[in-house]
Predict the structure.
Amino acid sequence: MNAWEKLGQVNLPEKEKYIRVFVKTFKQIQAGEFNLRAREEERKNYFLMVEEERAGGWFVHVVPKELYELFKALQHGAPNSFLGFSVVAGNYNGREVRVSCFGVQCNELGLALARTTKRSRSYRLHKKGFKERQRLAAKAAKPPKVKV
C-alpha cells in the first residue's frame, strides 16, 4: 500500500483538537499575527510545519504526531504538490499562504471555518433587507379589514 492509500484510510481519534489548531492558525495568518519562516516546530500533540516553497507559495501544515512519518514520506515523495486539503489564508510577499491539517477530512475543516468566520457586514445587511421584504409581503398578502 502506498502513502496516498494510507492517508485515505486514516481515522484520527480526537481530531477536534487538530481542527481547533487549524482554525486558530488560519485566523492568526489572516490577522498578520503568524511568524512566517520555514520551520518544523514540535508541539504537545502535533507538529507545525511551515514550508516556504510548495506549489508556488507558503504552506503551514498542522500534522498530528501519529501521522508525522506518513507526512514526511509524502512531503519528500511529492516535493511540489499539495498534500491534501488546504485553504488560502492570505498573501505574504506576493505569494499565497495556505493552511492544511494533515489527516483530517476537508468537509470537517470547511465546516469548522464556516462556523467560526464572522459573516460580512454586507451579508448581514442583505439578510436584514430580506427579512424586511418578507414582513412587507406578508402584510400585503393579508386581506384588508372591513368595518361593519
Remarks:
- The radius of gyration is 22 Å.
- The CA atoms of residues 86 and 100 lie 4 Å apart.
